[in-house]
Amino acid sequence: MTKLKWGMIGGGEGSQIGPAHRLGAQADGLFEFAAGALDHRPDVGRDYAMRLGIAADRAYGDWQEMLAGERDRDDRIDLVTVATPNATHFEITKSFLEAGFNVLCEKPMTMTVDEGEEIVRIAEKSGKICAVNYCYSAYPMVRQARAMVENGELGQVRLVVTNFSHGHHGDATDADNPRVRWRYDPAMAGISGQFADCGIHALHMASFICQDDVTQLSADFASTISSRVLEDDAMVNFRMSQGTVGRLWTSSVAIGRQHGFDIQVFGETGGLRWASEQPNQLIYTPVGGRTQIIEKGEGGLHDDAMRLSRVAIAHPEGFPLAVANIYCDLADAISGLARPALPNAVDGLRSMAAVSAAVASAKQSGAWLDARPPMFR
Amino acid sequence: MTKLKWGMIGGGEGSQIGPAHRLGAQADGLFEFAAGALDHRPDVGRDYAMRLGIAADRAYGDWQEMLAGERDRDDRIDLVTVATPNATHFEITKSFLEAGFNVLCEKPMTMTVDEGEEIVRIAEKSGKICAVNYCYSAYPMVRQARAMVENGELGQVRLVVTNFSHGHHGDATDADNPRVRWRYDPAMAGISGQFADCGIHALHMASFICQDDVTQLSADFASTISSRVLEDDAMVNFRMSQGTVGRLWTSSVAIGRQHGFDIQVFGETGGLRWASEQPNQLIYTPVGGRTQIIEKGEGGLHDDAMRLSRVAIAHPEGFPLAVANIYCDLADAISGLARPALPNAVDGLRSMAAVSAAVASAKQSGAWLDARPPMFR
Amino acid sequence: MTKLKWGMIGGGEGSQIGPAHRLGAQADGLFEFAAGALDHRPDVGRDYAMRLGIAADRAYGDWQEMLAGERDRDDRIDLVTVATPNATHFEITKSFLEAGFNVLCEKPMTMTVDEGEEIVRIAEKSGKICAVNYCYSAYPMVRQARAMVENGELGQVRLVVTNFSHGHHGDATDADNPRVRWRYDPAMAGISGQFADCGIHALHMASFICQDDVTQLSADFASTISSRVLEDDAMVNFRMSQGTVGRLWTSSVAIGRQHGFDIQVFGETGGLRWASEQPNQLIYTPVGGRTQIIEKGEGGLHDDAMRLSRVAIAHPEGFPLAVANIYCDLADAISGLARPALPNAVDGLRSMAAVSAAVASAKQSGAWLDARPPMFR
Amino acid sequence: MTKLKWGMIGGGEGSQIGPAHRLGAQADGLFEFAAGALDHRPDVGRDYAMRLGIAADRAYGDWQEMLAGERDRDDRIDLVTVATPNATHFEITKSFLEAGFNVLCEKPMTMTVDEGEEIVRIAEKSGKICAVNYCYSAYPMVRQARAMVENGELGQVRLVVTNFSHGHHGDATDADNPRVRWRYDPAMAGISGQFADCGIHALHMASFICQDDVTQLSADFASTISSRVLEDDAMVNFRMSQGTVGRLWTSSVAIGRQHGFDIQVFGETGGLRWASEQPNQLIYTPVGGRTQIIEKGEGGLHDDAMRLSRVAIAHPEGFPLAVANIYCDLADAISGLARPALPNAVDGLRSMAAVSAAVASAKQSGAWLDARPPMFR
Predict the structure, then answer these.
(1) Would you state the CATH architecture of domain A137-313+344-363?
(2) Does D294 sit within 8 Å of B292, measured CB to CB?
(3) Which of A27, B324, C118, C250 could be cross-linked to B24 through a Cys-Cys bond (beta carbons 3.0 to 4.6 Å apart)?
(4) Topology of domain D136-314+343-363, CATH
(5) pLDDT in tens, C39-81
(6) Chain D residues with CB inside 8 Å of A26's CB?
(7) Three-class SS of residue B276?
(8) Contact B290 D291 (CB under 8 A)
């Protein structure tokens, strides 16, 4: 078992996302951390990369240097993770795909729908993997939920209700804190605040579990802290292509909610509930029957739920290992084993189309708008 | 302590609501069950009333007979509860108020906004109590929540999120069951299904805790079981007069949710959560602080929360005693002690106005509409 | 349906227990509060009784006067509740039984095993009901648990684990508070503190659900606040006649536990868990299967669980209605309908025998001792 | 940052423990997997090691070969993990310590108290690290609990109550399954079944959080499935050197409990609760105050709780990362940074002394026995 070679752009010292990706890539011994351009300050990035054990000639000062350095090596990296500020995702992802690298891009994949469509086209043309880090979809019990829906265990899905709400930006006296403020400033965050930051995880999850696409939506946005231009609370009603009704609430001012990401799926013959703070259980109720607790690691789970769990029943596995599961799927996909559940550029594009539609709908008093990317209409 | 005299219309043998009111009225020894017209079949109702201990001359065949019989007695009833089918609430409530009786009406108080306004005017003119049985508002910890908001413990309220969702009508194969079907049939249920049945409890709760009125709303209705004319799932976004943002989801097809009525209130300096399935706790988080569990019966609660609890801390008190709390407040109000938290005809009217606005909004693709009764615009 | 006539001794103004019994007796309209000797101060008691609506000639100054007054009436009370200080339970219960009254005695029924045996003999001889208020046993879902065990749904029971632990006496600076102190003072509380106060509820529950008797036990007592003579924390290991292993922990210094009474029953083919703070659910796991939530009010429950529930599924019913359920069973029993689940004098006696054995065992370093009353050895 | 070199003995293909250690050692990039003797079948072990990326000359056939191969290398491994069957821990650990290696031994460290004392002496003499994998102690919120006790936030600890109970061996029809049976067979498991397997984790946890040693204990063992020689259920009462009272229940027949390891600590001024199925929260109640939820990742936690958490508040971290935390502490300790919380040979020895005392106590009807190793009496 030779390790695959992995590189990262961004994720420098002091970031949260860098360690999460390093752990995700290395936890299962699948990837070797071989190259990096980790900081926007070239010297700082090179130094940090070397301290993390990367060879000096692969400790790059910026992504352009890394692209140039890696593209002609025989032992070029098998995968590059893009963990830079949001506005740079498009250009970097595009460049590496065009140069024939597999890419894992942090969300949001792009800032606009047009850019998203361009990435989809490039990825397709290149034949390379372009994954997007919707890592919650890689929790074992989320995979179980998806398999149960696919397997017809809920019947036709009627209704999906999902929330991603926290209260960590609820303190108005802290609203000028730069770590908070940028998210509500269009100059830095783009056209949407909380919906683009957290809401799209929930929207992706709805599509992921149901294996269906959002077609239309209506949004209500609010800036509950008045100094904010972009929304810190949003409600989005939507419909999926098979008629499923969707409800999505996302907030950053829900004081007392820590990581309030959950999803409920209701079908003809049963209902499911999963919550990110207790990710190792799936709550299932057959119509007319009793609510049951499905435990990660129990006998008889669907394949992906089994495969992506490492320790025995009721030994909890948390967020970092969900990220690691994305890397497990990537390693398989790089090796030619199909991993259709891996979120890809089309997912990244659909998120941008939904953000764009939600922003427009909110401005039009909740008008129902087409949420699909133009290329899929 | 002489007991007050109490009568009931409807709530006959085999109903759920009759025993709940009898228990509520009698649990604390405040009311004596003195008169009744309990069934739409006169003889059946008289017989049942006598079996429940009511004197033969006050066991009436219908409400008209009861009104005639009681109005001229010296020992006339102090309070009448109207627990008949929804479509009759208006006429009965109106008639008893006009004859100078105090009334507790089941919800919905009326079928139309016009009727609601008429009741408000009659109640005001009569000087009598016209209460509406929004009994969830009488749980001790709901009163605690209201008092905390009033006391400024959350600062200005920014956001209210409430759900009343269950899955008991989620079985399409049972959709023709008459006990289920009527709720989705306009001929019997009026203009709205699930929102009028459960949603208005949640909407009342939002206003009750915040002491603020809903001014505008936008609704998305769905009939997820296609044979239904009226909605079995609804999302309502709203605004209150002080700018508070509201989100309300109600469903009867949420398989696995049993009695999913909960509310979250988020203000400038803290957040609260209360859920009807664990009604004896209130979850409170001060901004920047740790989540705390406030227990019914702990020291230092606000007055109403203390007064309306009967047994020591952590001894649970459930739904029937919330109904009994409504009767406690009624007994006090009848005795001349102000109980401003008691839901009244204005609350009943506001619910009808909200239902009317929601139905119209849903038909107009979620247009934002005025949710206030005309008389309060 | 004529109401039965009910009297109470003790439970005067300001007590917690008086209102609980009044609510319990009257909530379902089964009993009329006809007589009382409510306070150790005769005038205070008479006055309070009359304020509660009792006729002047049945508002008694003390229990002797009440016994004399009631015994010769044609309309004598059908049931008397003994809610006086523990040390007086024996004498009052004995006297009323001997005079041919049905009695509901608060726990502990007596202060000694000998007294307990005497009550059992008198009750048997009199043919009257002598119930003891182990009211937790009347929660619907506890009855469901008992029926499931009886029905073989768990197979042979191997193990019972029960706790009754709270932290309300955990503040050493409050240890001299008279409302707390007496419980740890042998002069007032007898031979045992926390075990006799709360532990015997848990021990009764184990026997109640398993329908089996405790035969042997070994105890470890601790006075974790050193000023206390009697134990404030106890662990009791026990065995039942069919070989079931028992574990019982009770504490009053478990700061953070409010009403920590729960029980787990593990058999050959399944396990059950019930907790008094969420009394409307029973958690059930079949061996090799998934954990299920059994809801009060769901279809297909065993008879007693159905009968003793008043409102629909997931509408919580709490402690006061568990007390009311004891009165429901008493009303039936008085009317000649067998209610074998109603806790009786033998249960009261077995508790005293267990307390006596536990105290002795704790003094003998946990020696295993016979826990049965002499008359049942 | 050069990676430390790490080797493992045992943990071959198909084991659960091997992947857990590999993930633990590599997740944070601290150790390089440099050597291994992974299987009792030499060829199988060598092959597997090479497939895991170990160089051929360090892929050993057995531990003796590995010891011989590593001891004279300049680049010898910095740490060896012993993950072999229990009966071999002593000999391997002893041999590597004597040869000057740092060791992480799986629990139980030894099969007897004598062996445990020998390891303690050898470890001390060698000056090398001998850690034992009580990995639950490395959860961030367990470290927080320990720091709170140390910091006096609970006052003097009065009482510790801990459980480690599951139901995975509760199926009598599966009792002959070799994966289950050996645990209850003295020939394979030694003198104790469930207590030695799970109970000692709980006992270690009590000592770990309180920083106090168990001095005396009294045990009640049961084999609830009659074919078992060793206990499958045990209750152990104990005392610690400062007078703290302890209660420990452990079971493998508690059907419905999955991973029921929890601990409650009650002191003069507060109580704490931690449960392994929700390891990212610590529940804290100050005396006389409200219960609070302390979240992993919140501001103001004690140092170890901060240091050993990788992702933001409410992003759960589970069991594998608790193991990784043991390796984090080991890396620091190897580098000369004191990590006093790392469980060591003395902890391993104390566990064996407690097992020995519990077995003897259970045979002597619960006699209270000295639980300390002879060398610490």
Answers:
(1) 2-Layer Sandwich (3.30)
(2) no
(3) B324
(4) Dihydrodipicolinate Reductase; domain 2 (3.30.360)
(5) 999 999 999 999 999 999 999 999 999 999 999 999 999 999 9
(6) 26-27, 29
(7) coil
(8) no
- Residue A63 CB contacts under 8 Å (≥ 6 apart), including other chains: A9, A37, A84, A92, A95
- Would you say D137 and D204 are in contact if contact means Cβ atoms under 8 Å apart? yes
Using the beta-carbon criterion (under 8 Å), do A253 and B159 form an inter-chain contact?
yes
Residue C277: how many other CB atoms lie within 10 Å:
18
User: Phi then psi for A76, rounded to 5 degrees?
Assistant: -60, 155
DSSP 8-state code for residue B8: E
Cα–Cα distance, C363 to C215 (Å, whole number):
19
Contact assignment for B321 to C319 by CB distance below 8 Å: no
N-terminal to C-terminal alpha carbon distance within chain C: 44
Chains touching C (at least 3 CB pairs under 8 A) are A, B, D
Q: Where are the domains of chain B?
A: 4-135, 136-314+345-363
- C273 CA to chain A: closest CA distance, Å? 14
Q: Chain A contacts of C300, Cβ < 8 Å?
A: none
Along the 377 residues of chain A, how does pLDDT read in single tens digits? 689 999 999 999 999 899 999 999 999 999 999 999 999 999 999 999 999 999 999 999 999 999 999 999 999 999 999 999 999 999 999 999 999 999 999 999 999 999 999 999 999 999 999 999 999 999 999 999 999 999 999 999 999 999 999 999 999 999 889 999 999 999 999 999 999 999 999 999 999 999 999 999 999 999 999 999 999 999 999 999 999 999 999 999 999 999 999 999 999 999 999 999 999 999 999 999 999 999 999 999 999 999 999 999 989 999 999 999 999 999 999 999 999 999 999 999 999 999 999 999 999 999 999 999 999 99
Residues of A in contact with C295 (CB under 8 A): 290
Contacts of D235 in chain C (CB under 8 A): 235, 237, 247
**D46 near A341, Cβ under 8 Å?**
no
CB contact (8 A) between residue C292 and residue A291: yes
> Phi/psi at A214 (nearest 5 deg)?
-75, 130
Question: B136-314+345-363 is classed in which CATH architecture?
Answer: 2-Layer Sandwich (3.30)
The answer to whether the CB of B271 falls within 8 A of the CB of A256 is yes
The one-letter code for the residue type at A150 is E
Q: Do B167 and A271 touch (CB under 8 A)?
A: yes
Nearest to B90 by CA among B58, B72, B115: B115
* D274 min Cα distance to partner chain B (Å): 16
Task: Tell me the shortest Cα–Cα distance from A289 to chain C, in angstroms.
Answer: 9
Residues of D in contact with A48 (CB under 8 A): none
Tokens of C146: 């008992």
Whether residue D220 and residue C220 make contact (CB cut-off 8 A), yes or no, is no
Structure tokens at C108: 């502990």
Nearest CB to A294 within list C290, C293, C298: C290
Neighbour-count burial for C219-229, b at 16+ CB within 10 Å, e otherwise: bbbbbbbeebe
User: Which residue, among B45, B49, B13, has the nearest Cα to B33 in the 3D structure?
Assistant: B49
The tokens for B153 are 């413990």
CB contacts of B311 in chain C (<8 Å) are 16, 20, 318-320
Q: How far is C156 from chain D (nearest CA, A)?
A: 11
Nearest to C319 among B27, B33, B315 (CB): B315
Q: Distance between CA B374 and CA A269 in Å, rounded? A: 43
A314 with D277: Cβ contact below 8 A: yes
Q: Which residues of D touch A166 (CB under 8 A)?
A: 314
Architecture of domain C136-314+344-363: 2-Layer Sandwich (3.30)
d(CA A307, CA A342): 14
Run of H or E residues at C246: strand C245-251
Half-sphere exposure of A21 (CA within 13 A, CB side): 29
